[in-house]
Specification:
Blueprint lengths: L11 E6 L2 E9 L3 E2 L12 H14 L7 E5 L5 E5 L1 H9 L4 E7 L4 H13 L6 H11 L23 H9 L3 H11 L2 H8 L5 H17 L15 H21 L3 H18 L1
Parallel strand pairs: 3-5, 4-6
Antiparallel strand pairs: 1-2, 2-6, 4-5
């Protein structure tokens, strides 16, 4: 196996980063700080990790592909991009990696940079897209507003779905479907696990909402009175007459007794 080395120069190395000459510095792994939202921004794919480890074992860490680090004013170095390469280096027992140190005005700017570099480098799965859309639609620690609303301060306002779509390199329609999925925890979990695509989950979420809406209890209409036979009507009349006669004979209130007697007389005439 080839000897694992960072570069032939211990302090600095010229690196080729997207055709622009930059200066890479070698940093010890324990100098890098892993922090949210960057650490969980993209999934580390086992097959990609294995390929990178194989390349490092054969050729050493590729200094032309440095990890990107946000060097803050307090000296902290936040790992913004390169989590798979750092994981490979850790698992192989390397002590240092080549890094490109950058400065950013804000967390939002650093996040936008991390997303941009990754979206141009990999084919994003629907699970990764859903994760990104969820992240961009929510304020992050240190953010005053969701990243998706930053560009809305321009002269011509844009829908936040359009802004988010531009940030991650997808369509506005897909962002809107993803938001529908995120509103349904069961469907969101299915996408994140790889069991469903965003399109499938959005359709299923829509169908579930429609089912719930139609199953709501509707006001019950009064049923029409049922017609009874003449014989049953006479029997019911005689029962009422008996009740009225009983009340007319036993009610202690004279006014009510008189009313019962009058009603009984009317029912009696009707039954003849």
């Amino acid at each position: 196996m080839a000897k694992l080395t960072m570069t032939t120069r211990p302090n600095k190395a010229a690196v080729n980063n997207s055709a622009d000459k930059a200066v890479g510095v070698e940093l010890f792994l324990d100098q890098l700080t892993k922090a949210e939202p960057f650490s969980s921004l993209f999934f580390i794919k086992p097959e990609v990790l294995a390929a990178i480890k194989g390349d490092i074992e054969a050729h050493g860490f590729d200094a032309s592909k440095p990890v990107n680090v946000w060097k803050k004013s307090d000296g902290t170095r936040i790992l913004v991009d390169g989590y798979t390469r750092v994981r490979a280096a850790e698992e192989l027992g390397l002590l240092r990696v080549t890094a490109h140190e950058k400065t950013f005005a804000s967390d939002a700017e650093a996040l936008a940079y991390a997303i941009h570099t990754q979206r141009d480098r990999r084919n994003l799965s629907d699970a990764e897209l859903l994760r990104l859309i969820e992240l961009l639609d929510q304020p992050q620690e240190g953010f005053n507003v969701p990243v998706a609303s930053i560009a809305a301060t321009g002269v011509k306002p844009k829908k936040t779905a359009e802004i988010t779509a531009e940030a991650i390199g997808t369509s506005r329609a897909k962002v809107e479907r993803a938001r529908a999925v995120l509103a349904d925890p069961e469907e969101a979990a299915a996408v994140l696990s790889g069991a469903k695509t965003i399109h499938q989950a959005a359709n299923d979420a829509k169908a579930r909402r429609a089912t719930k809406s139609s199953s709501k209890t509707k006001p019950q209409r009064r049923s029409k009175a049922t017609t009874i036979s003449d014989e049953d009507a006479l029997a019911e009349g005689r029962r009422i007459l008996t009740l009225l006669n009983t009340l007319a004979a036993n009610d202690p209130n004279a006014t009510r007794r008189a009313a019962y007697k009058s009603a009984a007389a009317m029912v009696r005439r009707a039954l003849k």
